[in-house]
Specification:
227 residues, alpha/beta, five-stranded parallel beta sheet, 9 helices, 11 strands
Length: 227
């Protein structure tokens, strides 16, 4: 079985690893980034009629000031984000499993217009439609120092999962060209794939930017090895 190296930050890395184990894969977690809390200006909850979180890290890094918005109708991208909100004291959260644009459409359909979005400094584009979205960064993803353990774990035939263009840039900077020809790359999007550079044994991305589809590609690589 090929080793599967998961490079995304925590807590997402552990979620991906657990799904990989259920598929019979052999995951190893080597995050290239970690969330770092930022000081942020907390506006009045009265200025908004909905709250949006697109990352569980946003919930964790917002800190005690997040509680000021508990009375607002709250929306989340992903079940992990919704679970983090429940853990923070939220009873009702509307969660979407697609992307920010899809949940923005749901917010608009529910009749809200003034939305507070607590997020990281880097956010995937959102089609706001009729919404007036105020985005405030409560964290940023800080690059971790190069880890010799990652290079050691990248044995011939290993599969590397890349979940963002920034992770691709970090991987490209850390992985020597001399090692790439024996490694397989699966990235979440064409942009993330391009950021990794060239020289890999194989490089692919799924038709949709989805963690499960990345793992399906990894499983297909492993099954091809066994045939």
């Amino acid at each position: 079985m090929r080793p599967l190296l998961i490079l995304r930050p925590q807590p997402g890395a552990d979620r991906t690893a657990e799904k990989a184990r259920r598929l019979g894969l052999s995951p190893f977690v080597h995050p290239l980034f970690a969330p770092e809390t930022l000081d942020w200006p907390a506006p009045s909850a009265q200025d908004f009629d909905a709250l949006l979180l697109t990352s569980a890290n946003g919930v964790r890094c917002a800190g005690p000031a997040l509680k000021a918005y508990r009375a607002l109708p709250t929306y989340a991208v992903g079940q992990a984000t919704a679970a983090a909100l429940h853990a923070a004291g939220w009873d009702a959260v509307t969660a979407g499993d697609r992307d920010g644009s899809a949940i923005a459409a749901r917010i608009a359909l529910d009749g809200h217009r003034r939305v507070l979005h607590l997020a990281g400094t880097t956010v995937a584009p959102i089609d706001a439609g009729p919404l007036a979205i105020t985005r405030i960064a409560v964290y940023h993803m800080a690059a971790l120092p190069p880890d010799p353990a990652l290079i050691a774990a990248a044995t011939p035939g290993a599969i590397l999962l890349v979940h963002s263009p920034r992770a691709g840039e970090q991987l490209g900077a850390q992985m020597p060209q001399s090692r790439r020809a024996a490694l397989h790359l699966i990235a979440i999007s064409p942009l993330a794939l391009a950021a990794c550079g060239d020289g890999w044994a194989s490089a692919a991305c799924p038709p949709r930017p989805d963690d499960d589809e990345m793992l399906a590609l990894a499983r297909a690589l492993c099954e091809g090895q066994q045939q």
